[in-house]
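lol forgot to send this yesterday, sorry. struct tokens for the thing we talked abt
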């Protein structure tokens, strides 16, 4: 969230982007896959004096991020996360040096999904996708006689497939996807941050 904020400030000056981050722990195959879906305004909000006193909200649109912008964002996030892991003692200096030398770092940013201004239906679909649960009950079947759980998945590379699991194995996979207790998995930053002075103006 901070890197996105810095990117917008370099491009547009003072102001804050509206950001909603969804912390997801799962992949399409009931696998543990930690990643973030971030819904971010294409520009920044800032307050300016109103014509009759008070304050009004202004929006400064931004150009879509270039491939160079995204590469810089990924590199900065990667270095800061590795530095944080090093400080926490999760990994050592040799591992950091080795990971920084990798051609494919394991860090990536996808920024091609856009909800056009005024297209509330597209925005709703995007938010629903980002906030979807780990398991779709529509894809889950329990074969009572066989004592098996069947889960239909969709692998982007390999296409649809069926996971056939023993009940205990299914519960084991499900348990890995449960977030830590008392941790918010939907977080608001920038103009939507809980203490942002812009948030009341956005709600008007």
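and heres what i got for the seq, position by position
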């Amino acid at each position: 969230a901070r890197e996105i904020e810095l990117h917008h400030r370099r491009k547009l000056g003072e102001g804050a982007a509206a950001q909603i981050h969804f912390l997801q722990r799962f992949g399409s195959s009931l696998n543990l896959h930690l990643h973030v879906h971030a819904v971010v305004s294409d520009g920044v909000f800032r307050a300016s004096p109103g014509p009759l006193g008070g304050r009004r909200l202004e929006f400064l649109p931004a150009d879509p991020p270039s491939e160079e912008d995204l590469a810089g964002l990924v590199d900065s996030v990667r270095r800061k996360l590795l530095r944080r892991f090093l400080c926490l003692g999760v990994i050592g200096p040799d591992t950091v040096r080795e990971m920084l030398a990798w051609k494919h770092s394991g860090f990536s940013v996808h920024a091609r999904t856009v909800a056009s201004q005024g297209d509330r239906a597209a925005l709703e679909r995007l938010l629903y996708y980002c906030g979807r649960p780990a398991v779709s009950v529509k894809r889950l079947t329990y074969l009572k006689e066989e004592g098996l759980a069947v889960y239909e998945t969709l692998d982007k590379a390999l296409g649809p497939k069926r996971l056939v699991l023993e009940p205990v194995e299914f519960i084991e996979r499900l348990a890995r996807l449960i977030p830590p207790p008392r941790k918010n998995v939907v977080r608001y930053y920038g103009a939507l941050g809980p203490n942002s002075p812009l948030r009341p103006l956005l709600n008007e």
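The longest strand covers residues 18-26. anyway ping me if u want another try
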